[in-house]
Structure formats: structure tokens, C-alpha cells
Amino acid sequence: MLKHAYHKLCTHGGGKLRHCLNTQTSGFHIGQPRFAPRSFFGVEDYLDDDNSRPYTYKKEKKSKNPDKHISFKQRTVAYMEPFTLDVFISKRFVSASLTHRVTSKQVAVAGTNSKDIKAVLKSRSDIPACLAVGRILSERAREADVYTASYTPRERDKFEGKIRAVVQSLIDNGIDVKVYLD
Asked: Its domain of life (predicted)?
């Protein structure tokens, strides 16, 4: 297609080729249009589609359905269940925290890397360590007047084994945890 257009322009008038490869943008000087050079691939060198900012910045994602209505539950769930449980388990240690959704502040934190737990445990990443982290996290959460939390496992995590041990320990020690499995 491009070869065909180029060939047509060359045979009918080579002077038009320069105007064809330039795009019209509005300038700041006296409101007159000026021509800005386009790159070979048809994309402006410095401006994006809106001509509002450099093309290297990330464009915000536009919704597929701009008229989509956000439900009442979606708008209020962060206030109805304000605390979320975050559990991280690696080969060397276990950590868990309760975070307030609205303010994004951690209310209670416990992990096997802390000095008080590290000295007592035989291993920092087995099931008894997970139970200890859950017990200590529940004590710290009750001190901060947090008695309910919600937990949604990450995509890569399965709700079994060590993660389930941390959540079950929280439930056994008086924190009501709602688990959302997708």
C-alpha cells in the first residue's frame, strides 16, 4: 500500500511527497497551522494521539465500557471490611500483616524475622512457625482493636499448607477472617 502511494506521488508530482509525509498540528504562533515531521512508521516523534504529552509516558487505560456502572458493593467494600490480611511465605521466613484498606497503613505486623520470634523457633519457615506468626499477629491486632479481616489469596498462592495454617491460627486466636476464594 505504501509503495503504491509513493509510486503514485512520484509519477504525478514529487513536490507533494513532502506535504504527504508531514502532519498538520496547531502551533502557538498566531494560531497558524504548521507542519510537524512524522516518523517513518506513521507515529509522531514526540507527541501521542492526543498531542498532549510525550509518547513515552504511559497512557491511562480506557475502560472497554465507559458507561459501566460501579455497584454500591464495589464502592463500599473497602469501608465495610476495612482490614485485609497479607501473608508472605518464602523458603527462609514467614510474615503476615493486617492493613487498613482506606488509609493503606499497617495495623499489625508479625514475622519470623523479628528478634523475639527468631530466638524461640526451631525453624523459621515450617508449619509451627506459621502458627506462631498467626498467634502473635492476632495478639497485636487485638491490641489495635481489630477483630475482623478479609483475606484474598494471590493468584499464585493456593489456600493450603502454610498459608492456611496462618489464617487458621488467626481464627483460633479470636480474629474473624473472611476468606475470599475466586
From this structure: Eukaryota
Q: What is the dihedral of CA 61, 63, 64, 68, to 10 degrees?
A: 170
The number of beta carbons lying within 10 Å of the beta carbon of residue 77 is 13
Mean per-residue pLDDT pooled into runs of 10, the chain (182 residues)? 58 53 49 51 48 50 71 78 92 94 93 88 90 94 94 85 92 92 76
Torsion of CA 110, 92, 128, 178, to 10 degrees: 50
**What is d(CA 94, CA 170) in angstroms, rounded to the nearest whole number?**
14
Which structural domains are found in the chain, ordered by start? 84-180 (3.30.420.80)
The pLDDT score that the predictor gives to residue 35 is 53
Quote the pLDDT of residue 57: 47
Neighbours of 177 (CB within 10 A): 20
87/112 Cα distance (integer angstroms): 12
Q: Residue 140 burial by CB count (10 A; 0-12/13-18/19+): exposed, middle or buried?
A: middle
Q: Phi and psi dihedrals of 4, rounded to 5?
A: -65, -45
* Closest to 112 (Cα-Cα) out of 87, 95, 100: 95
Neighbour-count burial of 89, counting CB atoms closer than 10 A to its CB (0-12 exposed, 13-18 middle, 19+ buried): buried
Q: pLDDT at position 154, please?
A: 85
CA–CA gap between residue 129 and residue 119 (Å, rounded): 12
